[in-house]
Structure to design on (440 residues):
């Protein structure tokens, strides 16, 4: 019996039957909750170009925290084409003139993150080349060198890896996928140790989980359960989300897909074993009694949303066994839904910025993190994948359809909203056909 299985078994025995049967997923109720969460953020931050002022520091609105929000918003937009969502995203990109980062920030994943949303918006209108140009220039400059050691912390895998995936698909140039794989494997296998690039792995294959960076691999341990390694919840969520997005935005015959599938499945098995009885995941995956900063209540929604969304994606596309993972997805979605304040759309239990379980707290139902944008983006991203799964399995109702014409898809075939041809459309999903968004 593995460490995580023994932890999970004990927790489940304590929980008894209270969480044994989660309700079926309903696409309509998932979307209703997502509308409220998206509206909350757009109402709270009506000015897409406004700087943030957290901790006495001024930051622009294209930093990684906002980039993750738009990843989530565009993922839920894939499921329901609400004009106000697209307008909000386009206004943001236009405000920044589709600029990604300065020369001094050019290789840093945090400052490239906005490029994911830029590229997704480009794929909705491939005539708008300005949406792709600047981030492509930055990535091309990286590829002109031999360096593969930029992603020295696991968050960076999510912030930048899907950009390479999308550029390879958009341009048809597999060099982006080759460099993406080289950088991923270097981070996976060599960024740990006593320094950056110390030669030890950040991914523990036996555990199926990641250390956040070299500072948190052994001999560092969890601060509460000191006999356990420290596997930060959201840090693992970043990698899980990135692997799902890389597979989403690359074709099935991408040369290194088997490596990503193998790690995705390893992580899935580990995550299944350390889900809390209430359906959520905590801040420290191997140490359930570590709730984080003093005053924290246990559930943590940024990681939970990414784990639920990743599992939902995996089941929907056939990477994960439905019978094994659907109960965890249903319970995870219920935890996500309970975190939403129905009267406002505010999402509770969000850990703020940081790098370890004890940062960014306390994490409670009513606590407001230092940055709300990225946590809401995580929640929306996960909700979108749950919605897509609910539609594909027919467990619940469907959502409204609307929106303006986009390209490609002018040849009569069906394409998904990332521009990839779909040979077997699913009833109730939205596709591009004949240059228009249609419901199949």
């Amino acid at each position: 019996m593995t460490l995580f299985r023994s932890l999970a078994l004990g927790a489940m025995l304590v929980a008894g039957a209270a969480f044994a049967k989660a309700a079926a997923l309903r696409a309509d109720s998932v979307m209703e909750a997502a509308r409220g969460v998206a509206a909350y953020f757009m109402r709270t931050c009506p000015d897409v170009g406004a700087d943030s002022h957290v901790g006495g520091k001024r930051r622009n609105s294209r930093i990684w925290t906002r980039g993750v929000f738009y990843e989530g918003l565009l993922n839920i937009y894939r499921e329901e084409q609400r004009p106000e969502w697209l307008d909000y995203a386009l206004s943001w990109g236009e405000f920044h003139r589709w600029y990604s980062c300065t020369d001094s920030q050019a290789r840093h994943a945090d400052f490239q993150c906005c490029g994911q949303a830029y590229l997704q918006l480009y794929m909705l209108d491939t005539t708008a080349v300005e949406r792709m140009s600047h981030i492509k220039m930055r990535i091309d400059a990286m590829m002109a060198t031999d360096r593969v050691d930029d992603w020295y912390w696991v968050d960076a895998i999510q912030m930048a890896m899907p950009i390479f995936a999308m550029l390879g698909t958009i341009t048809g140039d597999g060099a982006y996928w080759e460099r993406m794989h080289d950088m991923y494997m270097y981070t996976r296998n060599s960024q740990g140790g006593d320094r950056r690039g110390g030669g030890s792995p950040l991914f523990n294959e036996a555990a199926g989980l990641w250390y956040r960076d070299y500072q948190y691999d052994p001999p560092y341990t969890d601060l509460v359960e000191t006999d356990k390694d420290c596997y930060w919840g959201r840090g693992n969520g970043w990698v899980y989300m990135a692997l799902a997005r890389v597979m989403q935005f690359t074709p099935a015959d991408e040369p290194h897909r088997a490596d990503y599938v193998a790690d995705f499945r390893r992580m899935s098995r580990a995550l299944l074993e350390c889900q809390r009885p209430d359906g959520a995941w905590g801040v420290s995956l191997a140490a359930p009694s570590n709730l984080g900063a003093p005053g924290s209540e246990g559930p943590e929604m940024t990681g939970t949303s990414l784990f639920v969304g990743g599992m939902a994606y995996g089941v929907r596309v056939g990477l994960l066994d439905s019978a094994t993972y659907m109960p965890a997805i249903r319970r995870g979605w219920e935890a996500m839904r309970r975190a939403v304040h129905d009267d406002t759309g505010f999402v509770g239990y969000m850990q703020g910025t940081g790098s370890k379980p004890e940062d960014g707290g306390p994490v409670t139902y009513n606590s407001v993190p230092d940055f709300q944008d990225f946590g809401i983006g995580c929640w929306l991203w996960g909700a979108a994948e749950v919605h897509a799964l609910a539609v594909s399995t027919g467990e619940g109702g469907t959502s409204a359809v609307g929106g303006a014409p986009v390209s490609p898809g002018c040849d009569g075939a069906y394409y998904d909203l990332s521009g990839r041809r779909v040979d077997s459309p699913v009833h109730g999903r939205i596709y591009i056909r004949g240059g228009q968004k249609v419901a199949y």
About this structure: Strands lie at 52-54, 57-59, 203-204, 209-210, 430-433, 436-439.
